[in-house]
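Chapter summary example: a protein plus zinc ion.
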Amino acid sequence: LANTIIFATMLLTILGSSGALPAYGRYPTCQVLDVGADMFLIDCGEGAQIQMQQYKIRSNRINHVFISHLHGDHYFGLIGWLNSQSLFKRTKPLHIYAPAKLLAIINLQLEYTLSFIIEFHALQEGQAYTLFENEKYQVFCFPVEHSVPTHGFRFTVKRPNNIINKAAITQYEIPIYYLQKLTMGNDYIKQDGTIIPNHVLTFPKKPDLVYCYTADTLYTESILPYISHCNLLYHEATYTEEHSQLATDRQHSTAKQAATIAKLGMVQQLLIGHYSSKYKNTQQHLAEALTVFEQTTCVHEGYTIEIK
Ligand SMILES: [Zn+2]
Ligand SMILES: [Zn+2]
């Protein structure tokens, strides 16, 4: 029975929590999401590969890279990391999901050096759609509001199928060969024609695990349909309320606005980051967010969280 139960988890590591400028030991935006059989790189600011070493990320496990937009603080670390992958003689293809113009930049900088193939997938401007899906994961992108075309991403780890109820299996004498079908939702039909319904023989599957990443965005409720009820939301919080006009002018959010989105979206937990270099520390961000949404954490370099 052991192999009918598959454990699904997500482990998120923050490698950069800073906004446009690195400051006070903070690096530009970069995150790694370990989903078990695969690892996703979410934005890749300057210094990303140094941070991967620092936090012992086995980055050769990364097969999918998601770049939200082409502001330097979200992709200037990518070229260096790609080059290193090549020096490590990577042969596995790498999928990159990014604004179309990134491909020309990569080709120009790495024309002679890559040891592996890049499968480039241009993000369709302004569109919300599924980027890829298999039996284990789904990645979905959605537009946010920023000064250049920008997408947020929603990562779903699918939970295993129905879980076998061992006591019921024994009671109804279900043959071992049939257990796989039970996990897939089939009823069992005995030789005399009696139907044992699936729900008698299994426990229902648990809900899927969902992490949403907003990238850089102005406060916008247009993202609510995409992020609602997720287990974990990362929302940028570049500014505090004192600088809310700057947030509007530069198409970013305040910590309080991030918390408002989390509350309206009824998410379980909120992470905030992308702090402006104005701020030496993030105590004020946290205090302001907490007035709206209690389950808020200010992320910093090396912060990890597991969702299961
Ligand atoms: Zn940014
Ligand atoms: Zn930006």
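Key point: The longest helix spans residues 78-87.
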